# Entry
Amino acid sequence: MTSTSTATSTRTLSSTSTLTSNPPHNTHIDGLVSTSKTHPTDTHDATLQETIYTPLRLLIYDIWVLGIVATFAWGCSVTTYLVPLFLSNFRRNHLDIGVGTGYYLAKAPPSTHRKVTLFDNEPGALETAKKRSGYVDARAVVGDCLKPLPFTEKFDSVSMYFLLHCLRTSTPAEKTAAFTHAAQVMAPDGVLTGANILGKGVRQDNFFARWIRAKTLAHGVLSNRDDNAWEFETALRGTFREVETWVVGSIFIFRAVGPKTAEVKGKW
# Structure
């Protein structure tokens, strides 16, 4: 895969995907409907708009969403592209935003030298991810990634996989607040990685993808009609010193290093 950055690239993925440089142009189970509920957190109370996760849905998530749908509908193998990206940027003090089932954390053996914090608006997802990760002392916090994050410490690495396409906001630009809030709690040389499904500026959907997209949009599980690589990449480049982005199939993948704390301080 070809990549670009605002500084020297430090990592390249191999594929036939398209670089998002200068394009023309919520967490998260496809096809499942949610209800509203309010839950407390370990740091503050948060009014939750989604309760998508149940034990049964969490069990099928890996096979359905990360396996079949990602590969055959969106054209991006999670094990080929996303898992290696996560593992190579999983550092000593890590924050996972939008934890899903803890799939990515489970790929890395627990280490006493790492500290893990989980952040999601779904208590069920947090509980499952914590158990699956093997980090028994992991901190789980319920909250909204589009609001300032409730942390005073600085994280060495942050991840947000298959999150942005589920955020119910008016525009892709509003979703990029998640980048700003993540940067706020990152160390000066911290790294952010993630991926999400795009709605515009990507290859034409095959039959399976059209069916999945129609169903998930109709049920409000996906909210990404206008999501495009250009707006996401532009926001990342405005927030971080080094940025690499790729598009594989319909998936936008990113790696950003070094929050521009001084430049954006006024907005925080």
